[in-house]
């Protein structure tokens, strides 16, 4: 996908699969990731978290290899110096304050000034290091930011974030996204997993799309977004004379298939949804047909991903 | 990260020691909850009450020894140890917190070692102090040294074993309780062969020797009474380390 400044990608994933008994969580996934922000997009259950766990060395691939800076993160403990992870789970060490939690991470990374590094990391995520409240009293968004602080306290080259914007308000989201871009812009490799398309749109240009455990697409977000937008759509229309309207739409070339459904129903397949949207009203008006309803049948994200996998 | 004055250079002191100390302090804080402290202290204070009753016995030394061995070393100590040791790493797994410790450049042996040490730190005072108090109120001060030594050795052995159980087994607390009830307090008190594989019998032998009282299945050699619990604790720690090293972290 992208390359590090020295020419080698920071993260190399080759033919990785992961199964739990008969359940295949990740199937034959390969990609490289370099500096900058890369989004890992996919619906819930697509295998994103499992992929991220393997990326960090937390889980062993059943097949294939993962390399961070050329090393196996599973066996090379030293690689963890270069990795910061914000896991998806909300749990944190309950007796600790934000400063203690972040300082713990700094101490375990053997930083020379753990206290100073922890305070700086907390300031970076806009949290008060002198806040003496324990973590369970924090809001979800504040806990997310503490988790990010402990992940970046040691200044890692690879930062992995699993659904990091969950629970954040719009202002915090904007700040976090800006922070991801800043970290990526400084040459770090930032991998952000999300199941929210609009969120990913704001992360940046590189995207990996996972669905059903497979890598469905990878590359520039705008190309993938266009692919998603250009996919065949199924549209349900209710009209006073569906059969006549279907004929006109087929004749105009804006639909590739049409099926009358009941008295006033029409199910249309189209490769050109914007063209259909433009054509349907004038054609109906010209024929004197009343259009009662136009709605997409398959607009949920799951279907978009399914299309990308099956295409 | 701009604004964060950190580097990748390790500190010049002893990073291994500082990370171990940090893990130890963390586990201590996680283990010590008011419920646990009160629960274990209440169990221990019962031993003192039994010691008071033993004082009125014709053979106070024998009666105290039996209280200390049967209740103190046989029930309170393993229960307290199992409660803390299985939860030390087991709770981290259950709460999905292990990820914050595993993904650090820290030798894998340090977490199980810190868990064993934290368990010993909490349980030994909570169990040994009531046992010493029991000996004091019963007027059998000659048992104090043996009680303290036996408590420390038994806690080390159980802590190693149950920290490993916390890493290897689901529902480790219940399996460990079953072990204590069925094996340590059941079969090992009825069958000589089973007693040889019982941690309690080695700890009890030390106290029985000091009291010069014969207790069934508590007649191990003094050297074995010291070496075997230490070896069990070490083996448990080794098993825990192997498991932690190979674990897939959620």
Secondary structure layout:
The complex is a heterodimer of chains A (about 300) and B (about 250).
Chain A (H helix, E strand, L loop, with lengths): L10 E10 L2 E11 L2 E6 L6 H9 L6 E6 L14 E4 L11 H11 L5 H11 L15 H13 L5 E5 L7 H16 L3 E6 L2 H7 L2 E6 L2 E7 H9 L3 E7 L2 H11 L4 E5 L3 E6 L2 H15 L3 E6 L4 H10 L1
Parallel strand pairs in A: 3-7, 3-8, 5-6, 6-7
Antiparallel strand pairs in A: 1-2, 1-4, 8-9, 10-12, 10-13, 11-12
Helix pairs in contact in A: 2-3, 2-4, 3-4, 8-9
Chain B lengths: L14 H17 L2 H22 L4 H35 L4 H4 L7 H29 L5 H25 L3 H13 L7 H5 L2 H13 L10 H25 L4
Helix pairs in contact in B: 1-3, 1-5, 2-3, 2-5, 3-5, 3-6, 3-7, 3-9, 5-6, 5-10, 6-7, 6-9, 6-10, 9-10
Written overview of the protein:
The complex is a heterodimer of chains A (311) and B (250). Chain A is α/β, with parallel strands linked by helices and 311 residues long. Chain A has 10 helices and 13 strands. Chain A has a 6-stranded mixed sheet. A 4-stranded antiparallel sheet of chain A has the order 11-12-10-13, covered by helices on one side. A 3-stranded antiparallel sheet of chain A has the order 2-1-4. In chain A, a hairpin with a 2-residue loop joins strand 1 and strand 2 (23-33). The radius of gyration of chain A is 24 Å and the shape is elongated. By secondary structure, chain B is mainly α. Chain B starts with 14 loop residues before the first helix and ends with a helix. In chain B, 52% of the residues are buried. Mean pLDDT of chain B is 88; it is low at 1-13. The A-B interface holds A 53, 56-60, 77-78, 80-83, 85, 87, 89, 91-96, 104-113, 116-117, 120-121, 123-124, 150, 152-155, 182-183, 186 and B 1-12, 15, 18-19, 22-23, 26, 29-30, 95-97, 99-108, 248-250.
């Amino acid at each position: 996908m992208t390359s590090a400044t020295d020419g080698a990608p920071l993260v190399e994933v080759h033919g990785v699969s992961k199964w739990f008994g008969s359940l295949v969580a990740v199937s034959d996934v390969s990609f490289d990731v370099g500096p900058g922000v890369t989004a890992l997009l996919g619906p819930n259950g697509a295998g994103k978290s499992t992929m991220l766990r393997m990326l960090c060395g937390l889980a062993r691939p059943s097949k294939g290899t993962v390399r961070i800076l050329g090393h196996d993160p599973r066996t090379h403990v030293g690689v963890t110096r270069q990795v910061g992870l914000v896991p998806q789970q909300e749990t944190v060490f309950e007796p600790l304050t934000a400063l203690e939690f972040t300082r713990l991470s700094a101490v375990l990374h053997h930083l020379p000034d753990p206290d100073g590094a922890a305070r700086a990391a907390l300031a970076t995520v806009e949290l008060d290091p002198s806040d003496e409240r324990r973590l369970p009293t924090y809001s979800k968004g504040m806990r997310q930011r503490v988790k990010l602080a402990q992940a970046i306290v040691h200044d890692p080259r690879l930062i992995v974030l699993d659904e990091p914007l969950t629970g954040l308000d719009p202002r915090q989201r904007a700040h976090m996204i800006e922070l991801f871009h800043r970290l990526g812009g400084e040459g770090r490799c930032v991998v952000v997993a999300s199941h929210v398309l609009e969120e990913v749109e704001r992360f940046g240009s590189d995207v990996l799309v996972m669905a059903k455990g497979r890598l469905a697409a990878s590359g520039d977000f705008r190309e993938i977004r266009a692919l998603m937008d250009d996919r065949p759509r199924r549209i349900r229309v209710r009209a006073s004379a569906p059969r006549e309207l279907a004929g006109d739409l087929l004749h105009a070339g804006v639909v590739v298939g049409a099926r009358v459904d009941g008295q006033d129903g029409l199910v249309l397949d189209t490769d050109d949804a914007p063209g259909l949207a433009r054509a349907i009203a004038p054609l109906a008006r010209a024929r004197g047909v009343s259009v009662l309803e136009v709605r997409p049948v398959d607009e949920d994200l799951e279907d978009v991903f399914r299309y990308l996998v099956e295409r | 990260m701009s604004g964060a004055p950190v580097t990748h250079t390790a500190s010049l002191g002893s990073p291994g020691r500082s990370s171990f100390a940090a893990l130890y302090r963390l586990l201590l804080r996680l283990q010590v909850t008011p419920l646990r402290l009160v629960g274990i202290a209440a169990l221990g204070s019962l031993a003192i009450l039994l010691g008071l009753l033993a004082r009125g016995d014709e053979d106070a030394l024998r009666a105290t020894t039996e209280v200390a061995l049967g209740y103190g070393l046989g029930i309170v100590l393993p229960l307290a140890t199992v409660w803390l040791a299985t939860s030390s790493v087991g709770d981290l797994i259950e709460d999905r917190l292990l990820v914050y410790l595993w993904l650090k450049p820290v030798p894998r042996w340090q977490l199980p070692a810190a868990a064993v040490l934290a368990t010993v730190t909490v349980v030994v005072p909570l169990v040994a102090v009531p046992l010493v108090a029991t000996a004091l109120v019963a007027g059998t001060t000659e048992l104090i040294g043996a009680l303290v030594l036996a408590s420390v050795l038994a806690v080390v052995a159980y802590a190693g074993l149950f920290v490993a159980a916390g890493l290897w087994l689901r529902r480790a607390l219940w399996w460990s309780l079953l072990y204590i009830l069925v094996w340590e307090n059941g079969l090992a008190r009825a069958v000589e062969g089973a007693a040889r594989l019982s941690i309690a019998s080695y700890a009890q032998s030390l106290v029985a020797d000091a009291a010069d009282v014969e207790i069934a299945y508590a007649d191990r050699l003094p050297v074995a009474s010291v070496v075997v619990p230490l070896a069990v604790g070490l083996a448990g720690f080794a098993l825990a380390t192997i498991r932690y090293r190979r674990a897939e972290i959620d």
